[in-house]
Here is the input.
Amino acid sequence: MARVVVLQRIVPTYRMPIFRRLANELGWQIVFGRNVPNENLALGSGESFLHPVDYKSWSSNGTSRYVVPMRQILDTFKPDAIIAEGALGLTSTWELGARRAWGGPLLLFWTIGYDPNRPRDRGNMALRQWPYVLAYAPADALVLYGHDGADFLRRFYANKPMFVARNTIDVEALQHHRDQTTAATKVGRPELLTIGRLNANKNFASLVRSFLTFRQSCPDAVLKIIGDGPDRASVEAAAGDQLGKSVRLLGASFDEAETARHMLSADLFVMTGRIGLAINHALAYDLPVMAFERVPNGPQHGSEISYLVDGVTGFAVREAGEDGFSRKLSALFSNGHDWKNQLRPGLRDYVQKNLVIDRMLDGFRAADNFVAERLKDRRQPART
Here is the structure.
């Protein structure tokens, strides 16, 4: 079995089921920054496959730029291959590429493949995405969150092996909550729900404004927001006199059993900003999702937006802007239609086929087979 190290900045709790499976099935070890601040309750102990080391911050403007002690890691684990987070702010991204050029361990980057906040079209891409393209050049292969990242990078690396490990969470654990939890008492018809940290890229204030416009045609509607963060004041201001009435800020929730009650009572999950893994969370509860497509001047989604299949897992909004979002809501609920019940069979089928952990592991298993084959080729005696 190849010695494989997964190198990460942090280990958020939602990644633990995936890392546990990688350790148990493939023997991979997880190395991460012991001292990196984060909002996701990273776990640094209690699991034999987790190995915290000290990273050193090289910037005062956030928590994304760190010096990673690669020599210490290589000396300790002597890996045959490293699957590294492909972040530009980690010195490991650049050092591992240089080491690979001089015979270092096999190198795979695990990444979305691009910066979602920068354009990827051919006209503007050259000046904005080139740092990522350059950083990934020395890698033997790439592990991508979705097919969009693979398609983008194949423009530059037509022959580099790429494996898609569909970005997900432990939806089966969430489905257990779905099946064992009693729904909260419904407070609106329809009842809309959103979950996430209240920050700029989620744009919850815009969601509130769209909702209040929609409510003019559907006065019994209620919007619940689970989350907290730096934009709370702007969200409250957007709600105005409807705060605590039709717009209910429930605060951050770290209790999935409590979150499940609201997921089950809701009719639709809504997001006007970048959606991320919140879409997986909602779909695990049979809750259809409504969000903007990747549209000009719209939210800069990552790979997860591909899980929004119009008419199957929810509804894609093609008309950018708050008015476009509110008009879509009005069109959906003008006759009181029960979309959640109608979409449930196809939505459940989609989740089981695409979003369970095994589908993510398929990409890692393919990467592990690639590493094994490359190592076998290395060990073959030279032909004479």
